[in-house]
Hints:
single chain; alpha+beta; four-stranded mixed β-sheet; 4 strands; binds zinc ion
Amino acid sequence: VRSAETGPEIAVRRQLWSEGLRYRVRPKLPGTPDLAFPRQRVAVFVDGCFWHGCPEHYRAPKKNADFWRAKIERNRARDLQVDADLLAMGWTVLHVWDHLVRIDLQAATSLVKRAVNREPSNE
Length: 123
Ligand SMILES: [Zn+2]
């Protein structure tokens, strides 16, 4: 599912980089986040609306409907497991729908910046 780099991931990375943010690309973490900020421990996934079952845009294909339903459900279950694994490791996890990137890149990067700039909690 995440084997290929998609346009929205690259758009987010370019924008953040141009604003001076520095990050790791696809680091070796659960789920291989699209980018991550190791010092702040923020992992970012840009989720494709189809593959991750966006509630606004996912439409089940008419052909092989059972196959696709099962596949997207597996993807979503894996997303939840990955989030739980990262949280257990002390990471903050941010998912950005690729539709937001396409509609409003600034809004998408603002979400990332907000997560990265948040003061660390005193735990
Ligand atoms: Zn969507």
